[in-house]
Amino acid sequence: MKKFLILATALLVCFGANAQTISKSDITKNTSGSLSKEDISEIQKSFVLDGPTTALQNILTNNKGITQFAYSRDAIGKLDDYFKYKTDVRGITNQLSSGRCWLFCSQNEIRTIAAKKFGVKEFYFSQNYNSFWDLFEKSNLFLENVINTADKDMDDREVAFYFKSPVGDGGVWNLFINLAEKYGAVPADVMPETEQSNNTSQMRSILNEKLRTGGWELREAAAAGAKLRDLRKQKIQIMKEVYRILALCLGNPPEEFTWRYKDTKGEVHTVTSTPLEFYHSIVPPSQYNSADMVMVMNDPTRPYYQVYEIASYRNTMEGVNWTYLNLPMDEIRDAALASIKDNNPVYTSSDVGKYSNRETGILDLDQYDYESLFGITLNMDKKARILTRQSGSSHAMLLVACDTDENDKPVKWMFENSWGPKSCHNGYMILTNEWFDAYLFRIVLHRQYITSPQAIKALGTKPIQLPAWDYMN
User: Fold this and answer.
1) Which of 12, 125, 298, 441 could bridge 393 with an S-S bond, Cβ 3.0-4.6 Å?
2) What angle do CA 444, 396, 345 make, to 5 degrees?
């Protein structure tokens, strides 16, 4: 105790002058926004426990599910599963406990093409194969970003962004294109799922620790004067350990494979191929490549009819970044409907957790009435929800159907999901047109469906660069 008093006295002597500079007026200034007793009293009195309020409090404090009490009876039976226009889709996939919705959705878009090519009822790609190379390439991109920013402080915003989450298994459509055009694809039987591909959290945790360790060592080497060629050699050694982690968890990706299958006629066939040759046999570059496809976004926080590019949002160093054309919602609806009418399903990404019933597979703004339940107002528009981080894209699904009214205007849509055939509405989700407008953010279309003169002109312009930490990321 005596030692503590001596230390405290010494500190007061050393820093007493600085401590005295914090005046009472400064404290008053710093707390001018604090709640007074009068404020608290006024707020408390606004909550009156009358009969209905007491009943609500009893209900909500004794039950864990708020949404079941906000569920509107008017929503029951509102949506059926009949659609005027529906693409030819076959089978439901399951991403399980992974963030690979973007990969499942991208490959689901071309599964039907493969099924028709091979004469089978259903066809499935190996997401595990592409996941391996996705995480491998993202690791290299992270280490290259570390090298390129080695002269910046650790608390620099860009450096901090990279180290916060070196790699993850989430992504968007352009990541699949980068992978497919470099590594191709294989059937599911060639490189099946593993326990770690279906449940990625532990593997990602170990991988990120390895990458942070390697990234720190690269920065230390750079600070000590290492040349770029030496840093790259050091990076290769780190990548060998990255490969080892992935191979132990996901298996070895094949360089060549032999695949046997039985068609609908009962005939057995054998295919021997490389992954890249196999992918291009299904979708030749002339039919499906990044140059012919356009990612379209509805972001009301920024001007429409402009192209934006998010820095370093890719997986391969040589690949394309996340680049999108910002369009108003009416043009996005028209383009999506035109694609579906041509039997071309549409990659989409939306905020699937909002006003969503996972049991019924319904997405409807009117099915949960939180305002009536709590006696509050919730009235932000899409722009405000984005800027306040209340809403953002969280899940990719394939848009496969649309129902229209007597004027051929959309009234409801249907997603093919990747949560398994027993989830939602037999693996699908049905959404109102109003939900489409409010919570759908981006779609991927063939250029032929971009028809307005303003949009076509915008596609020829240089993208506006956005930082890697942009709020749409």
Assistant:
1) 441
2) 45
Name the catalytic one among 208, 315, 344, 395: 395
- Is 198 among the catalytic positions? no
101, 105, 402, 424: which one is catalytic? 101
CATH code that applies to domain 126-282: 3.90.70.10
Asked if 101 is an active-site residue, the reply is yes
Nearest to 473 by CA among 171, 251, 82, 206: 171
* List of the chain residues with pLDDT < 70: 1-31
Query: Where exactly are the structural domains of the chain?
Result: 126-282, 287-466
Q: Which residues pair with 416 in a beta bridge?
A: 398, 428
Which regions of 213-315 does DSSP assign to beta strands (E)? Answer: 257-262, 268-273, 293-297, 306-310
Condensed to tens digits (0 to 9), the pLDDT of residues 124-181 reads 999 999 999 999 999 999 999 999 999 999 999 999 999 999 999 999 999 999 999 9
User: Count of CB atoms within 10 A of residue 118's CB?
Assistant: 18
Task: Work out the angle between the directed axes of helices 201-223 and 127-148 (0-180°, nearest 10).
Answer: 20
Which residue intervals of 303-432 are DSSP H helices?
Answer: 329-341, 370-374, 382-387
Active site residue 402: no
pLDDT value for 7 = 41
Tell me how far apart the alpha carbons of residues 240 and 432 are, in angstroms, rounded to a whole number.
Answer: 49
Q: What is the pTM of this model?
A: 0.89
Helices (H) and strands (E) in the chain, counts: 18, 14
Please report where in the chains the tokens 């709020």 appear, as a residue. 471
Asked whether this chain's domains 126-282 and 287-466 adopt the same fold, the reply is yes
What does the pLDDT look like over 294-338, one tens digit per residue? 999 999 999 999 999 999 999 999 999 999 999 999 999 999 999
pLDDT for the residue numbered 25? 55
Q: Which residue in the list 128, 145, 417, 433 is annotated as catalytic?
A: 417
Nearest-5° Cα angle at 166, 395 to 352: 10
Q: Alpha-carbon distance 5 to 17, whole Å?
A: 19
CATH numeric code, 287-466: 3.90.70.10
| Greatest distance between any 2 Cα atoms in the chain | 92
